[in-house]
Each structure stands twice: as C-alpha cells, then as structure tokens.
Specification:
- This protein is an all-beta fold and about 70 residues long.
- It has one domain.
- It is built from no helices and 5 strands.
- The chain has a 5-stranded antiparallel β-sheet, with no helix packed on it.
- The radius of gyration is 11 Å and the shape is globular.
C-alpha cells in the first residue's frame, strides 16, 4: 500500500464493521517480533482521520479484496 490508496479498515474483533478511507500515512514501529504499523486513514463514514494499528485492525487496499 502507498499514500493516496483507497483502503478498507476492519476492527479484528468486529468483523461486521468495515470502513472505507484514504491512506494518508503508514509508519512502521518497533523491531523484531514486536513490529507494528500505524496507519493514518481519512475515514469516509466518519469524516475523521483515524490512526489505527495493524495489531487491532485489518487494513487492505480497496481493490485487493473488493
């Protein structure tokens, strides 16, 4: 994924909640097995920028899995 991609995000514990948005930033954090990525996403349904982690959210490009 790259900045400007349309993405979908879904909380890992709530598989029925899927949001669409625009990827503004992706920042890897940590080292080794404790590595994570923080994503800044402008979420269309909320009109807000959310910072989410791949630990708690699935994030994928809009056209990768529909």
């Amino acid at each position: 994924m790259k900045i400007g991609d349309l993405v979908k995000i879904r909380p890992k514990r709530a598989k029925d909640q899927v949001y669409s948005g625009l990827l503004l930033k992706a920042e890897p954090l940590g080292r080794g097995s404790s590595k994570t990525i923080l994503f800044d996403v402008l979420v269309a349904e909320l009109d807000e920028i959310l910072t989410v982690s791949d630990i708690f959210f699935d994030v994928w490009r809009y056209d990768d899995q529909g």
